[in-house]
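Dear support,

Our group has been running a series of protein-ligand predictions, and this particular one with fe (ii) ion is the one our PI (initials K.S.) wants archived with full inputs and outputs. We had some confusion internally about which version of the output was final, so please treat the block below as the authoritative record. The input we submitted was:
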Amino acid sequence: MPSMKSIITKRLGVIFALLSFIVIVAITLGFRQISIENAKDKAIAMAEIIKAGLTAHMKSGVMENRDYFLNEIKSTYNVNNINIIRSDEVNKQFGTSSLEKEIDNNSKYVFETKKPFFNLHEQQNEASLHAYIPYIASNKNTLKCLECHNVQEGSVLGVVEIDIDLSQYKSLSITYIIAILLFLIFFIIFTLLKSIKTINEHIVKPLESLIDKFEHSVLNYTKIDSTHFETKELIKTVDEVNQLIDLIHNKNQELEIKNIELKELNLEIEETLKETLTSIGMIAEHRSKETANHVKRVGEFSKLIAYKLGFSDDEAELMYISSQLHDIGKIAIADELLLKNGKLTPEEYKRVQFHAQIGYEMLRYSERKILKASSVIALEHHEKYDGTGYPNGKSGEDIHIYGRIVAVCDVLDALSSKRCYKDAWPFDEVMDYIKGQSGLHFDPTIVNIVLECKEDIRRIMVEFKD
Ligand SMILES: [Fe+2]
Ligand SMILES: [Fe+2]
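Confirmed final output from the archive:
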């Protein structure tokens, strides 16, 4: 992920590079054009001087000495070559001269058009401008050409061919361009560094600070102080962020209220479920004339023992509810067996015992933790530690700990309660019985807990008295 600095640096770099290229091209072309125009003006000015000089030579009758004059001009004005080309009329009047050059294509063009003609030669480091300037006859100027020349006003007497050396201009322009290029590079680097510094100071750092302040403000519900920021854009952003913080705070409050409502609802559902399961447990027990609070006491005893065995709060609560369904299977046992006065036949007793398996089958397919635990308890609460219980004759720790806990609690409560066929046993006798069954009917560890917690058990019995 590129940083803001690198993106802006790249963009500015491209813009500056493009700008530099345009500037260099414009300066190069401009410099070249100025040099050419300057050379043209120079050629025209020189042609005027040559015209005047040659006329003076001619009038003084020293035309044969004109080379000295032309060489002086050449060396003074940095000219490669100067040639004089006479018109056919002049040659006719004065005769041909070996000093003059013959008419070629370029000079012929100037004789015809009467206009200067320029030709630029460029080769690597060398450059020169070939100029052909017409010498137009006139009697209107001070030279009074027509006094000597037998030609018409405005006709071309001759052409001055000047080859001006531009190499110096070329090397000078290259030097200037390099200097400008160096300046531009320096300017670009300076501007980029300055831009990065500005971006850092006025964008990146304030943004980082805004993010820090935003986190702090959302957590503590405080507004961000916009006076910490300088630019109009950031101050506007801070105002918008403050509005956002308000919105978040309001939403949070709404969420908290909803959460509380949801918790209350959950609690309500949980309580309803507990009461429902207790009621189901009671219905099952009621069919065999067990008292209403029997299941509640079994639940309380089981929870107490679970805590003493080191179960967590959740597991102890699970034990409290699921133990209340230990006799759920009795729902499926016929009334004449459950309510029979007098002793059951071995066959009938076997059918009553079947309530453990039925309870298990009723609950075993549930995915709910409570009902799964209840199914184990329903199946194993009549198993005995020494292996003489039912339905599977399991022994010792093969019996699930839930089953071992409820086995003790169920008998403990049954003995302590009054039934239609028996009186309630005195508390100490019940405790003696439980102690006597340690390692036989009951798990010795659980028996020890029961004996240690006599007072708690007595308190539960009083609290949930029938
Ligand atoms: Fe039972
Ligand atoms: Fe029971």
